Amino acid sequence: MQVRTPEITPESVGFEAVLEQAGSYLPEDRLQIVREAYEFAHDAHEGQTRHSGEPYITHPVAVTLEVANLELDHLALAAALLHDVQEDCGVTNETVRDRFGDEVARLVDGLTKLEKMPIPIPGGDQELSDSQAQNLRKMFLAMAEDIRVVLIKLCDRLHNMRTLGPLRPDKQRRISMETIEIYAPLANRLGIWQIKWELEDLAFRYIEPERYKEVAELLAVKRAEREEFIDDCARTLREALGNAGIAAEVTGRAKHIYSIYQKMERYAEQGKSFDQIYDLLALRVFVDSVSECYHALGIVHSLWRPIPGQFDDYIANPKDSMYQSLHTTVIANGTRPFEIQIRTHEMHRIAEYGVAAHWRYKEGGKQGKDEERIAWLRQLLDWQRDLVGAEEFVESVKTDIFYDQVFVYTPKGEVLDLPASATPLDFAYRIHTDLGHQTVGAKVNGRIIPLNRQLQNGDVVEILRSRSSKGPSRDWLNSDLGYVHTSHARTKIRQWFRQRERADNIERGRQILDQEMRRLAGNIEGRHDEVIELFNASSWEDFLAQLGYGGIPTSTFARKISKLLQDEDTEPDLPEAPPSREPTQGSPGLRVLGVGNLLTTMARCCSPVPGDQIVGYVTRARGVTVHRADCHNILAEEERERLVEVDWGTATKVYPVDVRMEAWDRVGLLRDVSTVISEEKVNMISVQTLEPNEGAVRILATLETSGLEQLARLLARLEMIRGVRSVERSVSGSQSKQRSRKQASSGAKQ
Fold first, then answer.
1. Whole-number Cα distances in Å, 587 to 610, 645, 651, 657, 701
2. Is the CB of residue 357 less than 8 Å from the CB of residue 367?
3. Is residue 607 a part of any domain in this protein?
């Protein structure tokens, strides 16, 4: 078939780059279908433009170049060129099949279906519908059927993020949130580091533009000094490796903006500064064999002192994304820490391209689909057959796909990888469902630990079981108590309760409902229909049964019921505050030049308050002092360069709520209560203890909380403290009368 050659245009020049890259690994006869696909797409998109004004064909060409950089086969390249012709040009899949064959048509159809899916953002503000969760499920099924569909989709998203500028700010933010929550973690899970880091940086730029600029500027400071230091270290290491007879490539490694931002956030929580981030400076060492990796590690440690606790062996314990490397952090020149990564050239190829490295074109026709490389995905899909609703599925995505790993050992020395927050119960259910059901305790490294203690890398876990166990505890499903973190364990526990008698589940659900309403001092009498609709139940009994067997987690129940109760009133349904304790604003988040969490003090000369026009004055020893803009000291200041922009930032509204606890008295009770409240970042503004009878104690506390969801979580944790019998909100007399009137009114309507 003769293919017409289009006139020379910017988009055809871009296609020449595709042919050049594809020709570096494909034989000439395989490029024919790629040329035909370009000609077809060029004609189909004729007259269409992007938001930037460029011809639309520039987008599929740019996507195809990224696919060629992954060295995927000729059929994937053709599909990338054609990926928008069904959606945007009205071309049928049958036409694509007749022209380019079944496999290309199947890839294009899969990409079109993904394009039509409104992908939900796990943890986003919006509630997830069953149809949205089903879209996410379809994406992972498409991955399992043909990983090329998602690889092309990632390249498509990468180019869209690179050209996001012409869109409206609200669309930029929505697409960026979707990218950083779904696509970047997916690229990471598939091991495609090159795409992962660029998606994160691009999304971060639109989501937090001020923070992005701040981190970029911090990196720019002393960049030349850092580069000189790392070059000296690289030269020293090359000489040492060469003297040891190891042929190695040693290069500097650039740290990416979003990963530095994440580390800055973690360090800030620990009171550490930007200068204490170890791996801003990094070297990569590439050698020919695994034995040389460990030999090179010994040489590194002989040159520089390693920092304790900063060594990871991902060669012996590879990540699920197939990543393998040795990581160590050392001290050079006495005080300067930097990271060194050591791996083979093959390991580096897999680190950069992940699962795509096993889909690269192989002479002889068929690609080498390495089933073991995506075994985690198939296992996940097997587990998800047991999942019921949208919330369970999205929960499983967040915990079982987008997670950091922890490697633990069975008593026999077998290695299991689990999410970084996994507990002994997650471990038990990963081994066998019956073992999980019969768990009564656990030993880690020979010591008995609580079942909700999170496991650490290298832990040896032994499960204590009882054949006479009556099964799992319902507390295990309470996410606030932290017993299980994997969707697999949670699903098996729910199944166990679901299979019990329906009457038992309904009765248990009624007890949970009464308990939660008592805790929150709420009332849903007369609103059963709203509750049934809110939880997608078929009847009131079905709702109670789901609540009883754990199909509706108590945390989810509290969150949704909180919204329902808030709909009844204009303010969150919290106790009326005394006149002296109106709902208050939390400490204002002062921002200097748009940056928060800097050392600031209020000037005593003018005592600014939120709402005043303010300006900052850079002192020599006390950070930034905040003055009113009309303060006489500021107006008289001669060193105007020391004045900086300051604004009040945002403040969080908090509400006082009274809580009553009944407990058996013991030493340390109040300390434990205070610890739990502090961990939830809730302020306790008053506390009183009473002794109604011998051996018992009543604690009355006033807490400042942001709303019912936080309050429900806190009350659940307080009730788990040893010796505590009950925890509930204490309702004032005026509120009790008000609620009685509401109940009477709702009863009359019934």
1. 10, 19, 6, 18, 21
2. no
3. yes
Count of alpha carbons within 13 angstroms of residue 397, beta-carbon side: 27
pTM for this model (two decimals) = 0.54
DSSP 577: P
How far is 461 from 463, CA to CA, in rounded Å? 7
Give the largest Cα separation in the chain, rounded.
98
Residue 513 and residue 297: Cα distance in Å, rounded?
58
Q: Rounded distance, CA 130 to CA 137, Å?
A: 10
Q: HSE (CB half, 13 Å, CA atoms) of 700?
A: 9
Q: Is residue 387 domain-resident?
A: no
Is 87 marked active-site?
Answer: yes
Q: Determine the Cα–Cα distance for residues 441 and 450; give it in Å rounded to an integer.
A: 7
Instruction: Choose between 735 and 101: higher pLDDT.
Output: 101
196 and 234 in a single domain? The answer is: no
Q: Is residue 539 one of the residues assigned to a domain?
A: yes
H helix runs in 575-731, sequence order: 632-635, 669-679, 708-719
| Domain coverage including residue 18 | 10-215
Domain identity same for 524 and 451: no
Residue 540 lies in a domain: yes
**Do 489 and 429 fall into the same domain?**
yes
- The neighbouring-strand residues paired with 326 are 313, 342
d(CA 43, CA 96): 14
Return d(Cα 93, Cα 86) in angstroms, integer.
Answer: 7
Q: What is the mean pLDDT of residues 623-643?
A: 82
Classified as helix, coil or strand, 4 is coil
HEC per residue, 671-695: HHHHHHHHHCCCEEEEEEEECCCCC
Residues 196, 115: one domain?
yes
Joined tokens for residue 345: 């050239």
Q: Which of 53-67, 117-131, 271-285 has the highest mean pLDDT?
A: 53-67
Amino acid (one-letter) located at 390 = A
Choosing from 36, 39, 54, 88, which is the catalytic residue? Answer: 88
* Same domain for 163 and 39: yes
Give tens-digit pLDDT for 430-454. Answer: 888 889 988 989 999 888 888 988 8
With beta carbons less than 8 A apart as the criterion, state whether 108 and 96 touch: yes
Contact indicator for 452, 481 with CB cutoff of 8 Å: yes
The per-residue pLDDT for 498 is 74
Is pLDDT larger for residue 707 or for residue 242?
242
- Give the active site residue among 54, 87, 346, 541: 87
For the chain, count helices (H), then strands (E).
30, 20
- Examine the residue annotation and report whether 146 is marked as an active-site residue of this protein: no
Which residues, other chains included, contact 401 with Cβ-Cβ below 8 Å and sequence gap of 6+? Answer: 140, 185, 186, 189, 380
Q: What CA–CA distances, in Å, run from 521 to 236, 241, 309, 686?
A: 68, 70, 48, 20
* Span 179-212, pLDDT tens digits: 887 788 888 877 788 888 899 999 999 999 988 8
Q: Do 535 and 543 touch, CB atoms closer than 8 A? A: yes
Distance CA 606, CA 634 (A): 10
Considering 171, 195, 215, which residue would you say is the last residue of a domain?
215
